[in-house]
Amino acid sequence: MSGEKTLEGMIVHHCAPVLRGIKPGGLFNAPAFGARTPSPAEAGEGSVRRGASDANLYRALREAQAKLAPLGVFLDTLATRPFGSLVYVYRPAMVSRMLGRAEAARFLEGYGYPRTCAVKPHVERMRQRVAETDAAGGCAHSCRFPHEIGLFLGYPLEDVVGFIENQGRNCLACGCWKVYANERDAQACFGCFKTCTKELRALFSAGVPIEELARIHVPAPTEPNRARADEAQASAHEAPSPALP
Fold first, then answer.
1. Which domain holds residue 87?
2. What is the DSSP letter of 32?
3. 162-198: buried (b, 16+ CB within 10 Å) or exposed (e) per residue?
4. Sequence-separated (6 or more) residues with CB below 8 Å from residue 142
5. 20 within some domain
6. Is residue 39 part of a domain?
7. Is the pLDDT at 42 greater than 50, yes or no?
8. Would you say 45 and 53 are in contact if contact means Cβ atoms under 8 Å apart?
9. What pLDDT does residue 53 have?
10. Cα 84–64–153 angle (5° rounding)?
11. Is 243 part of any domain?
12. Among 80, 92, 169, 211, which lies 20 to 30 A Cα-Cα from 181?
């Protein structure tokens, strides 16, 4: 399997700014390795084939988690769907700082998220929200999605709110997310993320291990944020994710 088709390759491709420490989280769909869309005649055998490919995916998730967790990067699956999983890659210390902002906390409370800076309860609520919207859509490939999750990916609150209120229309710009305010700042972020992704993909293709990419990190949190970061890291270590058996 070529580098970018492995789970680690997908993490680098979709979440390089998270590895670099300039973005709190990233989200991507990881296909179950070895899976393909079945023909109608094969549909009845799908669960058998999916079991083996899911096992390969979960094994790859556990291996990546073991490499990245000591460096402050964690993985959780938010949904397991036919032939793949929705994978959340994040830095708990950075997510916790977002949760400590009063406006963000109030916004998330409106969607049933707990009022705490601990990250794990929010990941669990994200998982519930994805399941709710999948069920409401009537199928695993529904276009419905809990868009408040954008906050956990580092999107500005005003852009998340703008997207929800405008149903994705009338944006000022579109890049890593749809922009509804501070377009200049957003475009600068998009450029930074693009450069970061290009650099880390090149390094990974050249054979640099993913854990070394995660070491190429921005400076450690300043002292006022250190206690909160340590709390977030401890919370992430409390128990193994139920999504990574």
1. 3-34+45-237
2. P
3. bbeeeeeeebeeeebbbbbeeeeebeebbeebeebbe
4. 133, 134, 136
5. yes
6. no
7. no
8. no
9. 63
10. 70
11. no
12. 92
